[in-house]
Amino acid sequence: MKAIIYKLRISLTLILAIVFTGGIAPVSAINTKNLKAGLYALLETTKGEILLLLEHEKTPLTVANFVGLIEGTKKSNIASGKPFYNGLKFHRVIDDFMIQGGDPKGNGTGGPGYAFEDEFHPTLKHNAGGILSMANSGPDSNGSQFFITHKETPWLDNKHSVFGRVVEGMDVVNKIKKDDVIKKASIIRKGGAVKNYIANEEFFQQLRKNNQKKQKNQSKTLIASFFKEQRALGRKFKSEDNVFYAIVKKGKGAATPKRGDKVKLHYKGSFLDGMVFDSSYKRGEPVEFPLTGKLIRGFEESILKMKKGEKRIAVIPPELGYGKAGAGPIPPNTTLVFEIEVINF
User: Fold this and answer.
1) For this structure, is 147 an active site residue?
2) What is the pLDDT of residues 184-215, one digit of tens each?
3) Of the listed 43, 91, 132, 136, which one is catalytic?
4) Of 56, 150, 160, 165, which is the active-site residue?
């Protein structure tokens, strides 16, 4: 009888040892059998499982990067074929904000050995908890680090690329603490459209070329459409110092402001599609400030060429605007349209 009990104890000890050392795969807490068609990522963490729906159609480049790193099918600075995220920590966790992981160094400075461009879609915003987005150190510096939000964070829109969302396991996201681990990351393919989805290096680079070409074409189309509409209104544009401008109302006299002068003016800033992002007209009062070189270059240089009472439209390219960094509601590499009316100086 003692021998039987002893054997049972040994068997139980062996079973527990096998389970806790990974000899037997743990049963998934999330049922993935009845998922809707789509591409999913499953993160098995020390606090539980997180299921993410990936927006492979809206942000194909960013998703291909994520999937390729998860499955080890994309080139990075680790061994070929090795899953990138397995064993990495959530190195940055801020309560009521987000959890961040994907850094092989575990301190926020690491990555996969390359960087790629931002990818924004108008319907993908940081508008809820559970949003999956890319962490970066500035425009077009995406790599392997990602974050998942605890709540809406709209100030991150057009600065960080949203490419998915939590569909199950939000309770786990909220439990994650600093240094909790991604034990395993895997991809789930549901439906014929993604059955043969393979995110290798060749696929990623082709998407990258497509994305760059698409951005250039969109910009050209918007610019052409804008000038067509302006011509229909009878406005004739001239070019000076890489800024296109049309005088809507002539000013008085010959004097123009000088560096250091204080100017009083009205303005309206918009995108090429007509969407307004800022307007003193809307606020009902003009602005007053000195010309000391602190404004975006294209805007200030336009003012320096204007006379009292003059009103003009200035089309400012990204390099004379907010450039690659963008600002607030203005995305990186954006052409801006300013309506400027100088009242006094």
Assistant:
1) yes
2) 999 999 999 999 999 999 999 999 999 888 88
3) 136
4) 160
